[in-house]
Predict the 3D structure of the following.
Amino acid sequence: MGILRLGHVDVTVTDLDLATAYYTEVIGLQEVERDEDSVYLKCWDEPNHHSLRLLYGPRVGFDQMSFKVEHESDLDELENAVQRYGFPVTRISKGQAVGQGESIRFDTPSGQQMELVHDIEMVGRATAPINPAPFVEGLKGIAPPRLDHVLVTAEEVGDSAQFYTDVFGFRITEQLLDGAGHQSAVWLETSHRPHDLAIVTGKNGGLHHFAWWLDDWDHVRRSADILAYNGIQIDVGPTRHGITRGNTIYFFDPLGTRNEVFTGGYRPDPDFPTITWTEDNIGRAIFYYEGEVNQRFMTVHT
Amino acid sequence: MSILRLSHVEIRVPDLELATAYYTEVVGMYETAREPDRVFLKCWDEHQHHSLILTFAPTYGLNHMGWKVSEPDDLDHYASRLTEAGVDVVRFGAEEIGPGHGEAIRFTIPSGHVMELVHGMEQVGNLLPNTNPPPKPLGLVGFAPPRLDHIFLTCEDVAANTRFLIDVLDFHLTEQVMGEDGFQVATWLEHSHHSHDIAFVTGQDRGLHHFAWWVDDWNQIREVADVLAYHGVRIETNPTRHGATRGHCIYFFDPAGNRNEAFTGGYWVDPDEPAVTWTESEMGRAIFYYDGVVNQRFLTTHS
C-alpha cells in the first residue's frame, strides 16, 4: 500500500548524445528506448522499463522524480490526499508516457515535480527467468544493479518533509538540526532502507543528486577506478556517511548533474526512532571520515 | 498494513549455558533477558528486545518463528483471515509470551510449524546513541551480525505450504525449484522486498533447516569463517554463493546441532514481479552456485 520505492528520475540534458554515452559506457546503464527528445535507460537488474530518462532541454535540470506505488488503486487515494493538502494533480493517461501506464503528477511544496505510477512495463532483468546465473557477464562500466534514492533541495526543509510524511506516509529516519533546532536536512524512507528521498536546505525545485545502489565497498572501489579511468570529475569519496552509514562516491555527469553510488546502511522498521544530528556534528554527519563538508557539496546543485 | 519481516526465532537446546556461550561469544549476540529455562538475545543493530530465544529442552529444533507486523490492527486482520481459512488462532497479551514481548497471535501452518505474528515488542535500542551516532560500535565480540535475516524450513508438501503463505498471509513467491513431476521441490518467499524472508524445501514436517543472520558483505562472510574456525565451530559449507537469491553465505552448526547461516547480497524485488524458476536438474546450482552440487548432509540434516 502506498509508495514502494523510487521508480525513475527524469533529468534534462543539453547534449543527449554525450549524456547517453556517459550513462551507458561509464555508468553502464542499458538503453531501453529512444524517441525524438528522450533516451530511456535502466540498470541491468531492474525489471521495469526505465529508471532514468534523459530529456533534451535548453538547460541542465531536474524534470521530475517518479515513485512506484504498490497498487493501481493507490493512485486514486493519493491523488485525493495530495489535493486535500492543497496541491493540484494532473492525470497522465496510458499511452501518454513511454514505458508506463496511468500516472499522477503534481508539484511538491518545494517546487519539484513528483509523479506516482504503478503500471510500469516489465522488460525483465538482464538475468534469465529460468535457472539464472547470479550475475551477468561482460557488463560495461560501473553497472549498478539499480537506482536507489534521490536528494532534493528546498528552502523550507521542515514544511517540505511534512508533505511527504503526512500525505504519503514517508518516515523520517534521520534529521540534521541547525543551531535553532530547525531541520536543515531530513532523510525519509518508505522501503525499509535508510532513505529513498532526502531533502537539504537550498533553492526550491533543485536536484542535489540521485544515486545508484552498489553491491558493497569493493564495488565502490571499482567504481572509483572506472570514474578516474574515464576522467570523470569526482566530487567526494570514496568515503562514508555518518547519516545512513552508507559508503559512497559523489561525481558529476558531463553536463553537471551530480551522481552518487551508494551501499550499506541499515534496515529501519516503521517504528524506528529518528536519529538526530546536531549542527556541530554536520561534518561527520555528511562525511564521516573527513569530518567536514566542502563548499561545492553544499552549494552546487541542478 | 502488513507483515514486515522475520522478528524472532525460538529454538530448543539441551544445554542452555553452552548454547548461550556460543550465541553470545561466537556469534556475538547480546543477552537481554534470562529465565530459568529461557535466554533472550538480540543482534547489536536490532532495536527490539529479542530476535532469538533459546529454550531448554531435551532435544533441538524450532519451537516457533515470530513475524513482525507494522500495525496493531494487522493482528486482528490476519486472525480473521486465518479463522476463515479454518486455522485455529491463539491470542497473547503483551509480555504474556515473555519479557519484552509484544501482543501476538499464534497458529500452525500446514507443515506443522508454529508461526507467530507480533506487534509492539519492547524497543530496547541498538548499541548506538540516537544523536550523532558513529556508523558502528567498536569492540564487538564474535562475528557480530547486525540483524536476523531469514528462516528456512523443511516440509512434506512444499506446494501446499507455499500456497497457504501466499493466499492467507500475503507472502510473495520470488523463486522456486520445480521437480520433474511439476511440483515445487523448494520455494523462497518474501514480505520485505528482499529476495527471501522464508524458504521451504521438501523434507520432514516441522523441521528447521536453518536460520540466518544478515552480514554486511562478502568480506564479512570471510570474517565469519575466521571466527568460526578459530572457535572450532563445525563449518558445513565454506563461503560460497547461492544461485537462488544470489546471496553469499556460509553454513555452520550451533553446539546443539541447529544449523545457522550468515548471509548477504541478494536483490530488491517489487511485489508484482513474477517468480524465478529453477529446474530440478539445476538444483545444485540453485543451492550452491559455485559447487553446482548439493551435498547429502545439506539435504538430509535438519533439526
About this structure: Residues 217-229 of chain A form the longest helix (13 residues). Chain A touches chain B through 47 residues (CB under 8 Å). The CA atoms of residues 198 and 282 of chain A lie 15 Å apart. The mean pLDDT of chain A is 96.
